[in-house]
Amino acid sequence: MTEFWQAFCEFLSLEWGDLFARLAILTEETAAQMNITAHKTLPEICVYHILDSVSVADQIPDQGCVCDVGTGGGFPGLVLAILRPETEFTLLDATEKKVRAVERTAQDLGLTNVRALCGRAEELGSRAFRDRFDLVVSRAVAPLEILAELCLPLVKSGGAFCAMKGRRAAEERAAAKKILQTLGAKERICRREVLQSSAVLSAISALPADADRALIDAFCAMERHTLVYQKTRPTPQGYPRSFAKIKQANRPKREE
Ligand code: SAH
C-alpha cells in the first residue's frame, strides 16, 4: 500500500469528515468572491484541493510547528491542520486578501492551531522566522530551484522541506541540485503518488460533492510527486537572497 493509499484510508475513517465538508463549502464561497483558485466548483475543490493535500499528510509531524509557504486559499495547510490538531501551522502568503480569507476560514472551522500570516517567505527567512520550523510544505508556488531558497531558510536544522510537484519534478530536481546542496538539504524521499479513480470516488462520496467520473479520471491522470529534503545544518550567511536575485540566478538559460 502506498503512502497515498494509507492517507486516503486515514481520510476515510472520517473522524474529520464534517470539517472537510465545511472546508469545501467555505472555500467554494471564498472562490466565488475572489480569485484564490482556478478550481471553483465544489467537486473540483474536494478533489484538487482537499484530496490532493491529503497526499502529503504522512509527512506531517503530529507535534511541533509547520509552515505552508504560499498557501493561497489555504492549501495544503488547512487540510493538514485538520489532520494534525496538535501541530501548530503558520499559513504564509504574500497577498493580504488571501491571508484574510484563510484566517476567516480557519476561524469558522474552529481551528485553534492555525495562524495566517501575510509576508514574503524570503524576507521572513532572513530574519523573523529563520531556522524556525520543524517542517515547511509548499504546493504550486515556484519551480524547485527557486522554492528551495524560499522554504529551506525557514526550516530548523534537522527539520524537513516537503515540495508537492507535478510532471516537471525530475527536471526541477536536477536543476535545484546546487542550491539544495548550498542550503544543506539532503533528499530523503522522492516518490510518485499513484492513485486510482475508484479510491478517489469512494473518498469523495464522504464529501458534499457530486463529482463526475471525468473530473476524477483527469485528477488521477495528473502526475504528482512528493519530494522531501532533510536540512542538515543552519542556513548559511547570505541566504536567502532577495527575490530579484533569486530569480536572476535562476533565469532560464537562452539557447543562442
Ligand atoms: N499553495 C496554494 C496556492 C498556490 S498559488 C495552492 O496550491 O492552491 C501561489 C501562491 O504563492 C500565491 O498566493 C502567492 O501570493 C504566493 N507566493 C508567491 N511567492 C511568495 C513568496 N515569496 N512568499 C510568500 N508567498 C508567496
Protein described:
This protein has helices at 3-12, 17-33, 42-54, 77-83, 96-108, 121-124, 144-151, 169-175, 177-182, 197-204, 213-221, 243-249; strands at 65-69, 88-93, 114-118, 133-139, 155-165, 185-192, 225-231. The chain has 256 residues and is of the alpha/beta class. It has a single domain (3-232), classed as Vaccinia Virus protein VP39 (Rossmann fold), CATH 3.40.50. Strand 2 (88-93), helix 5 and strand 3 (114-118) form a beta-alpha-beta unit. The chain binds S-adenosyl-L-homocysteine. S-adenosyl-L-homocysteine (SAH) binds next to strand 2 and helix 6.
What is the CATH T-level topology? Rossmann fold
CATH top level label: Alpha Beta
CATH architecture: 3-Layer(aba) Sandwich
Q: Main β-sheet: number of strands, strand sense, barrel status? A: 7 strands, mixed
The overall pLDDT, averaged over residues, is 90
Number of domains: 1
- Say which molecules are bound, naming each kind only once: S-adenosyl-L-homocysteine
Q: Give the assembly state of these chains.
A: single chain
How do the strands of the widest beta sheet line up side by side? 3-2-1-4-5-7-6
Note the beta-strand portion. 15-25%
Strand tally, please? 7
Distance between the termini: 48 Å
The CATH homologous superfamily name equals: Vaccinia Virus protein VP39
Alpha carbon gyration radius: 18 Å
Short description:
Helices cover 43% and strands 19% of the residues.
How do the strands and helices of this protein lay out in sequence?
Layout: H1 3-12, H2 17-33, H3 42-54, E1 65-69, H4 77-83, E2 88-93, H5 96-108, E3 114-118, H6 121-124, E4 133-139, H7 144-151, E5 155-165, H8 169-175, H9 177-182, E6 185-192, H10 197-204, H11 213-221, E7 225-231, H12 243-249
Parallel strand pairs: 1-2, 1-4, 2-3, 4-5
Antiparallel strand pairs: 5-7, 6-7
Helix pairs in contact: 1-10, 2-3
This protein binds S-adenosyl-L-homocysteine.
